[in-house]
């Protein structure tokens, strides 16, 4: 089972998944083991809360970034808890390397560094997270709710949010609409 864990992978929701939260979602899995899984949606922007609100809430001064810093809805759980998925060029206390490409930080320090242009070169800020109990994610995959893709920096950080789901689907190399909804075991 250890070789089947999905830490460092992306889940892509199947077209038939019509859940309000996970419809057309791309979820980066930062932890998956025998106790369950945890990850962040990387393609759903928050519209009602902005980076300026976040730094104001933590009393972090900031310079105006060249490009706006977007906040993402990481998932339905603990929506006030923040996480930064980022490139490995940034490592400070509290940074956890997920694999050889990406890390997660969740300190005020990383937000301050991002605000002042000293943070990771590539980053995605998510409020809230998605979580699965033991074997829940595996069962959802068996029932064709998700497909798994390897994330790239281009997919996570450089692709427009509204294009990430389709780009991840295209990485599969087959027509996702031809996948049957029935499951079974021979």
Distance between the termini: 20 Å
The secondary structure category is: alpha+beta
Shape: globular
Order of helices and strands: EEEHEEEEHEHEHH
How would you portray this structure in words?
By secondary structure, the protein is of the alpha+beta class. It has five helices and nine strands, in the order E-E-E-H-E-E-E-E-H-E-H-E-H-H. It has helices spanning 51-57, 108-115, 136-142, 153-158, 161-172; strands spanning 10-13, 26-33, 36-41, 71-73, 77-87, 96-97, 102-105, 123-132, 146-149. Strands 1, 2, 3, 4, 5, 6, 7, 8 and 9 form a nine-stranded mixed beta sheet that branches.
Summarize the structure.
With 186 residues, this protein is of the alpha+beta class. The protein contains five helices and nine strands.
Topology:
Elements: E1 10-13, E2 26-33, E3 36-41, H1 51-57, E4 71-73, E5 77-87, E6 96-97, E7 102-105, H2 108-115, E8 123-132, H3 136-142, E9 146-149, H4 153-158, H5 161-172
Parallel strand pairs: 4-8
Antiparallel strand pairs: 1-2, 1-9, 2-3, 3-8, 5-7, 5-8, 6-7
């Amino acid at each position: 089972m250890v070789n089947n864990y999905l830490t460092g992978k992306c889940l892509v929701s199947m077209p038939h998944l019509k859940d309000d939260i996970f419809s057309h979602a791309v979820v980066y899995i930062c932890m998956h083991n025998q106790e369950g899984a945890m990850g962040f949606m990387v393609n759903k922007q928050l519209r009602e809360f902005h980076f300026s609100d976040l730094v104001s809430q933590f009393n972090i001064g900031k310079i105006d970034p060249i490009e706006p810093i977007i906040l993402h809805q990481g998932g339905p759980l603990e929506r006030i808890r923040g996480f930064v998925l980022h490139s490995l060029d940034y490592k400070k206390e509290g940074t956890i390397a997920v694999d050889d490409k990406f890390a997660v930080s969740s300190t005020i320090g990383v937000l301050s560094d991002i605000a002042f242009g000293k943070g990771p070169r590539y980053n995605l800020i998510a409020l809230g997270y998605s979580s699965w109990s033991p074997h829940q994610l595996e069962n959802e995959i068996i029932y064709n709710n998700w497909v798994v893709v390897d994330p790239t920096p281009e997919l996570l950080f450089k692709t427009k949010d509204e294009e990430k789901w389709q780009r991840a689907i295209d990485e599969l190399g087959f027509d996702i609409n031809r996948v049957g909804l029935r499951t079974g075991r021979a």
